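COMPLEX REQUEST
Ligand: zinc ion
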Amino acid sequence: MTTTLIRGGTVVSATGSSLADVLVDGETIRAVLAPGSELLGVDLARSVDRVIDATGKYVIPGGIDAHTHMELPFGGTAASDTFETGTRAAAWGGTTTIIDFAVQTYGQRIEDGLAAWHEKAAGQCAIDYGFHQIVGDVNEASLTALRGLADEGISSYKLFMAYPGVFYSDDAQILKAMQVAADTGLMTMMHAENGPAIDVLVQQLLAQGKSDPYFHGVARAWQMEEEATHRAIMLANLTGAPLYVVHVSAKQAVAQLAAARDAGQNVFGETCPQYLYLSLEEQLGARSDEWGDFEGAKWVCSTPLRSKHEHHQDELWSALRTNDIQMVSTDHCPFCMKDQKELGRGDFSKIPNGIGSVEHRMDLLYQGVVDGHISLERWVEITATTPARMFGLYGKKGVIQPGADADIVVYDPAGHTSIGVEQTHHMNMDYSAWEGFEIDGHVDTVLSRGRVVVDDRQYLGRAGDGSFVKRGLSQYLL
Ligand code: URP
Ligand code: ZN
Ligand code: ZN
Ligand code: ZN
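STATUS: Structure written out below.
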C-alpha cells in the first residue's frame, strides 16, 4: 500500500479552511494534521512513499458530479462520451465521482435498463461512479422494481415532465412513483418542464418557419419550468416524498423551490454551469461563418439557456449563496456538431439536447469564487460536500477526514486554465461549449482513492481504476 503526504496546502472544507497536511494510506485518508506534524515521533515526510508539495495551493475533496449522461441514447443518436472518455475528462477537471443516469426506456423493465448500464460502465471508468435510475415507463412492474432499488445502492430516480412519447410521465404516474418514494426514502429527481404544452409551442413555431436553435429557447419558456416545478412540489408535498429538481435555469423556478423550503418541505434544487454563464441571446442565438444560424445548436439543452435581459444568472448565483439552490452538477450530455447536432438542421426540435461540461465544472465554479459570487468554502460545498450528502455518499466522499476515500484535488489559485477544444479539452466532442473561457486557477493533482490519476498536466490513470459505488439514502433531509 502506498502512503502519500500532501504537505503545506490549505485544506478547504464546506465549513472552513486551514493549513494542514493530509496523510493518505492506500485508498483512504488516514489523518489531517497540523502542518509539519510528526506522527508518534516520526517525521512523516521522511517515512511516506510520496510527498506532494501543496504549498500555496488548495487541498479539496474531489468533485462529485451528480448529473451525467455517458452514452445516453437520445434523439436518434447517443451522447458522444463513453464511460471511458467521459470519466477520464472528469478526472482531468478534478471530479473524482460521477453519478450517471441508468435508463429504463418505455416498455423496458427497470432491472434490464439498470443491468445494461452496469455493462456499459464496468471496467471502463477512470473514477468512481454511481447511478440514479431514470424511470421512463411508470407502471405496476416499475413501481415494484423501485421498491428494490435502494438495495442495489441506487437511492434516487428521475422522472420527466417533459419529452412526451420518450421519457414523459403524466401526473398520475408521478403521484404513484412519489408514493413509493415516500415509503422507501428514495429521492425523486424531476425534470420539471411542461412537455405537452412545450410541444404545442414547438409545432407552432416550426409552422411559422422559425426553425433555428434560438427558437428552442423560445418554445421552452420559463413559465413552462415554473409551472412544472410548482406542480412537482405540490405532488411531493401531498405524498411526503423528498424532491430534487434537476437543471434549474429560471429564476421563477428558484422562487418556487425557495418558498417550499421556507415552508419546511424537503425540496432541493440543482443548477448547472451553463445557466450561470450562458444565455439565449449570446449562445442559442449565435451565428458563425462555419455554421451560420445553426451555431446555436452547440448550446441546445433542456431546460434551455435563458434570456440575459431577465437576469436569471444573477438570481442563480444569489440562490447558490443563500442555499435556495443547494448544488451544481453539469448535466453532461455531449453531442458533436458533425452528424449529431446536425440532425436538427432546419428543425430545432430534432437537435439532440445536451451540453458537455464534465471536465470544467470545478474550474467554472472556482471562477465564481474569483469573481466574488461565492466563497471558497461554498465552492467546495456545492461541488463536493452537498452532492455527497444529497445522494448518500457523505463520509466516504465529499470531505477530507480520516476514514474517507482519498479522493483529493490539489488546486492552484495562482495557475491558469484556458478552455477550448485545442487547449484543455479531453471530452469526446468536436467543439467546446466553453471555448475561450479563461479560468484564474488550475487543477494540479488529482487523487482517486489514493492513486494519483492526474499530475502536472499528465494523465496517469487507466480505464477500470474507478469502481461502482453503492449509495445510501440522502443525508441531506430536514
Ligand atoms: O438537455 C439535456 N438536459 N439533455 C440531457 C437529458 C436531460 O433532460 O437531462
Ligand atoms: Zn432533464
Ligand atoms: Zn429561503
Ligand atoms: Zn440530464
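REMARKS: The pocket of N-(aminocarbonyl)-beta-alanine (ligand 1) is lined by residues 69, 191, 247, 301-302, 331, 333, 353-354 (CB under 6 Å). The chain has a mean pLDDT of 97.
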